[in-house]
Write a structure and sequence with these properties.
Layout (H helix, E strand, L loop, with lengths): L1 H32 L3 H19 L36 H5 L20 H20 L28 H7 L5 E3 L1 H11 L1 H22 L4 E13 L7 E15 L5 E13 L7 E13 L6 H4 L1 H30 L15 H33 L5 H36 L7 E3 L2 H29 L9 H11 L7 H14 L6 H27 L6 H27 L9 H35 L9 E2 L2 E2 L5 H15 L1 H22 L4 E11 L15 E10 L5 H68 L15 H42 L27 H18 L17 H5 L3 H21 L11 H4 L7 H5 L3 H24 L1 H6 L1
Parallel strand pairs: 1-6
Antiparallel strand pairs: 2-3, 3-4, 4-5, 5-9, 7-8, 9-10
Helix pairs in contact: 2-7, 2-24, 6-9, 7-9, 9-19, 9-21, 10-11, 10-12, 10-21, 11-21, 12-17, 12-20, 12-21, 13-14, 15-16, 16-17, 18-20, 19-20, 20-21
Length: 994
């Protein structure tokens, strides 16, 4: 009974072992298949987020607007499963002429989709912007409905490129979407393919850091094999059996280059059909190898990790600089650094400039149309010939052609700008012109003076009636006090009555009036002579002398009008013998009175023009370190700009750090020139052979070995070449840094010079445009004003040569005015672009949560009073630190509605509870790192407690660091924190006192 029972238990135990072994094999098989795609993707995202949160502790290159997944509102948003996206539509020929091993997923099918969330965003922005414009009274007229066009992507491609209904509605809107500069920048953050590529590059550079850190962790492995064998009796291993082989262990790399390897192996043989007993033998192997020469030491072992960490820092800095360059790219166009294949560069300001150039030329065409109507009337009165009328009409046709060309250029520029924003070209957009409209509003004020001057000229033409000669004085007084031409000339309107009454006084007879006019004329000649003498010496009249000259001219004009009116009111033409002579004499006297009225009104015009001069938009300054680079001495401005750029530029920081990278490679490559000398330890132990005791390890079956491995450096040709190349690369890196610094200095010097020249040109061209408006006014007045009488007769008709000269002068002034307006607009735009570029290159362009420049000195915020530069810098950094500590962005609080501050990061990561947990984890980790000392600024990055937390340094080594240096650093940080708390509590006064 016992053998039978023993056999039964043996058979049951063998079956249990077989079942257990099969279960282990199944588990191993499932393990080799790996986890799900989502698991690995989420793990990579989590580790990259942790790495970026650890590095995101320096405010100067803080990571903002980052999300590796596209924004849900973006055009390229992908709502499908990121791990198993649907198959996109294939090219028919490629599909037919090549194998197709992968079939469309059952659920996903074949699909191509395009996000339309940005259209809803545009619609909300449009409603908000038009509401603000309507409230301000600057709403533009609604455009005509767009013609119904086929959906974007149609024309035979509808089946392969289905367009969502929302996109079709966005293309076929009744009016375009009105977009401001800030909204264009935010739309670029959402929809720009180049921006998303830059975010993904940051993610890709963070991945090697996770790999290099993992290389210093315990790395476990497990393998298994199972064999079912049937061997015939004539073979040496005859029988039926299961043969199972298993292996498990781990490896560990230390920062000194030591490698620890542990391996547990088991070989089990289960006899199923024979009488042989089961066998299970295990082996343990433990190896520890420490290189002492070649391949040993922290410098060599930690080099891959060091380089990966530094490359990530370089990419973070590059991303921070890219954000500023992207703002400049959207605002002004230009090249986008590090974005190969970027969209055509146009820029918001350049597109708006083209739009306003159309408006300037349209104003010129309207002036020509008005002149053409006037010339046709003059032609009917035989005052001009048909040749002059045709000349005006030809100029009008040329102007209409220029308008068409400018509209075409604007349409092309707008399409290129849409490509910059990642918007389909058929989507209608209208750019808000308020940034540059201030300049055209000033043009409109001068244009109003021109129109009122034309209206005044027509009014004076109506007053040339013989029967109404007695009413001319009263009508002239109304022109001086109540006409639209004198609106805004408050000083003139307030004093004209009293001044004219002095000239109308009864005691001022004809002789006294003439004597007074002669005295004023003599005084004016003296002032003219004095001005000529001063100009010959390069000097000018004093303000008091200039005011005296203006007062003399005003009084002469008013006295001359009174003298002419007295003669005109006596009506001497009634004594003329013939009606023609009466008519000629009346016309001659009225012409003199008309000139007098115009001369008096020129005082009001000059007062209005003087007030208009003060309404020109001022150029925003560039205050750096207490001086304005546009107004200070050129050499001082150049020195300040260059020193600031060399200190702040993130790309130069990377270049300096890369010189250190090349320097480290010298020592790393020199290590390979050494011979090899390794010291190692080996231990192996086995269980009893031929028995089923897999865990019966004893000291009697254990072997310990201590070995030394040495190799002489006899053949090191390849290593020698690598070392020599490292030396050359180090010298190249030094020269590259010098070249980069020199190039930045030259670039900054050129930009400062350009900015100062543009600022001077702006002042010159303002004066030029003012004079051109006055020339247009004078040329138009000369065309309609009565001509100088010939001899003693009345007004005469100008000769053909005189009419041609007047026409040519009028057309020339029209053309000069339009060109001057365009030149001034171009200078204004160029200054804005150059100023922004200078701030980008100075690395002094703070951006808010939307990626929009926080420009405290721009004309766009006239109600904001600039603060001193040190206080401004401290306020920005303190606000950023408080925002980072509180998990919020302070800049977002002032963001305008309706869509800003949507939680871009949370939306991009899928939203929901999981997204919020990730965001909260990242913020808490960043706060903990700041408290622990990893948040050291760049200037304290060499602090001992910062070094102590680098990978590969243990606690014992940290304890050996100099305590005195650590205490000094801690005191430094405590003082900095005390200053910040004190400044935050006491306000700007404490900052200035500090």
């Amino acid at each position: 009974m016992m053998p039978s029972g023993h056999s039964t238990w043996r058979r049951l135990g063998r079956n249990a072992v077989v079942m257990l072994t099969l279960c282990l094999l199944c588990a191993t098989l499932l393990g080799t298949l790996g986890c799900t795609r989502r698991f690995f993707r989420s793990a990579a995202d989590r580790e990259v987020d942790e790495v970026l949160a650890e590095k995101d502790v320096v405010l100067e290159w803080k990571i903002e607007n980052y999300h590796v997944y596209p924004d849900p509102r973006a055009r390229f948003a992908d709502p499908s499963n990121p791990d198993r996206p649907p198959m996109p539509p294939d090219d028919p020929a490629a599909s037919m002429l090549s194998p197709n091993p992968q079939k469309p997923p059952h659920r996903g099918g074949i699909d191509r989709f395009e996000g339309t969330g940005y259209l809803e965003l545009l619609a909300a922005w449009d409603a908000h912007n038009r509401g603000v414009a309507a409230a301000a009274g600057t709403a533009s007229e609604p455009e005509a409905p767009l013609p119904k066009a086929p959906a974007y992507g149609a024309d035979g491609a509808g089946e392969l490129l289905p367009q969502p209904r929302t996109l079709r509605q966005g293309v076929l809107r009744q009016q375009p979407y009105l977009l401001t500069l800030e909204q264009a920048v935010e739309l670029g953050l959402i929809n720009s393919r180049e921006y998303q590529t830059k975010r993904e590059n940051l993610y890709l550079v963070a991945l090697p850091v996770t790999f290099e850190r993992f290389s210093f962790a315990y790395q476990y492995f497990a393998t298994g094999e199972a064999f079912r064998a049937w061997a015939g009796r004539d073979l040496s291993d005859a029988g039926h059996r299961w043969r199972l082989n298993g292996n498990a262990g781990f490896t560990k790399l230390f920062s000194t280059g030591a490698l620890l390897m542990f391996d547990f192996a088991n070989r089990t043989v289960l006899e199923l059909g024979g009488t042989a007993k089961d066998i299970s033998i295990s082996t343990i192997n433990l190896d520890l190898v420490q290189p002492l020469l070649q391949g040993g030491g922290r410098a060599v072992t930690l080099e891959p990790l060091t380089q990966a960490e530094r490359d990530l820092l370089y990419e973070i800095r590059g991303y921070a600089r890219f954000r500023k360059e992207y703002y400049q790219y959207i605002t002004a166009g230009g090249a986008l650094t590090g974005a190969a294949g970027a969209a055509p560069s146009e820029g918001y300001l350049s597109t708006v400039q083209r739009q306003l150039e159309v408006k300037i030329e349209e104003d010129n065409v309207r002036r020509l149309e008005s002149s053409l109507k006037l010339y046709r009337v003059l032609e009917e009165g035989d005052q001009v010939s048909k040749l002059q009328v045709d000349e005006v009409q030809l100029e009008l046709l040329s102007g209409q052609t220029r308008v068409l060309q400018l509209r075409q250029a604007y349409g092309d520029a707008l399409d290129r700008f849409k490509l910059q924003l990642g918007v389909p070209p058929p989507v209608p957009l209208e750019l808000d012109t308020s940034l540059v409209r201030v300049l055209l509003d000033q043009y409109d004020r001068y244009e109003l003076v021109l129109k009122q001057s034309e209206a005044l000229s027509k009014t004076l033409d109506r007053y040339e009636v013989v029967a109404e000669a007695g009413q001319l004085r009263e009508r002239a007084f109304k022109l001086f006090t109540d006409s639209p031409f004198v609106e805004g000339a408050e000083r003139f309107r307030a004093t004209i009555d009293e001044r004219w009454n002095r000239w109308k006084a009864p005691q001022l007879d004809e002789k006294s009036l003439t004597d007074k006019l002669d005295q004023l004329a003599a005084a004016r000649r003296k002032l003219f002579d004095l001005r000529a003498q001063r100009q010959a010496k390069g000097q000018a009249l004093t303000p008091e002398e200039q005011k005296a000259l203006a007062d003399v001219n005003a009084e002469l004009a008013l006295g001359g009008l009174e003298h002419a009116l007295r003669r005109y009111e006596s009506q001497p033409w009634k004594k003329a013998p013939t009606p023609q002579q009466q008519q000629d004499l009346h016309a001659q006297l009225y012409r003199i009175v008309r000139i007098g009225i115009v001369n008096v009104l020129s005082e009001a015009r000059n007062e209005r023009l003087q007030s208009l001069t003060l309404q020109w938009p001022a150029l925003a300054g560039v205050p750096i370190e207490g001086i304005d680079l546009t107004k200070a001495d050129l050499e001082e401005s150049l020195d300040v700009a260059v020193s600031t750029a060399l200190t702040n530029r993130l790309d130069l920081m990377n270049a300096r750090a890369q010189v250190v990278d090349a320097w480290r490679q010298v020592a790393v490559s020199a290590n390979s020139l050494l011979g090899a000398f390794d010291i190692g330890y080996h231990m192996d132990s086995t269980t009893p052979p031929g028995e089923a005791k897999p865990l019966a390890f004893t000291a009697s079956r254990t072997r310990h070995e201590l070995f030394f491995n040495a190799e002489l450096p006899l053949v090191r040709l390849a290593e020698r070449n690598t070392y020599r190349a490292a030396l050359i690369e180090y010298q190249r890196a030094r020269r590259a840094l010098m070249a980069a610094e020199d190039q930045v200095a030259a670039q900054l010097r050129a930009e400062v010079r350009q900015l100062q020249v543009l600022a001077r040109n702006y002042e010159i061209q303002k004066l030029s445009v003012e004079l051109q408006f006055q020339n247009v006014e004078g040329a138009a007045e000369n065309v309609v004003a009565p001509q100088q009488p010939a001899g003693g007769g009345g007004a005469r008709v100008p000769t053909a040569a005189e009419a041609a000269a007047l026409t040519e002068n009028l057309l020339r002034t029209y053309s000069a005015l339009a060109n001057g307006q365009r030149d001034l607009l171009n200078t204004w735009i160029q200054y804005q672009v150059a100023r922004q570029q200078l701030y980008v290159d100075l690395e002094m362009m703070p951006l808010d949560s939307r990626g929009v420049w926080i420009d405290e000195y721009s004309h766009r915020t006239p109600d904001h009073q600039p603060v001193p530069e040190p206080q401004r810098r401290f306020g920005q950094r303190l606000a950023q630190r408080r925002a980072a500590a509180g998990g919020t962005n302070a800049a977002a609080a002032g963001a305008p509605p309706p869509s800003l501050g949507h939680g871009l990061e949370r939306l991009a990561r899928g939203g929901g509870r999981r997204g919020r947990r990730r965001l909260l984890l990242r913020r808490r980790r960043g706060q903990a790192l700041q408290r622990s000392g990893l948040g050291c600024q760049a200037r304290t990055a060499r602090a001992p407690h910062c070094r102590a937390r680098r990978p590969g340094i243990g606690r014992k080594q940290r304890r050996r660091l100099p305590r005195q240096a650590g205490a000094q650093e801690h005191r430094h940080h405590d003082q900095m924190g005390h200053r910040e708390r004190r400044r935050g509590a006491e306000g700007p006064e404490a900052d200035r006192a500090g």
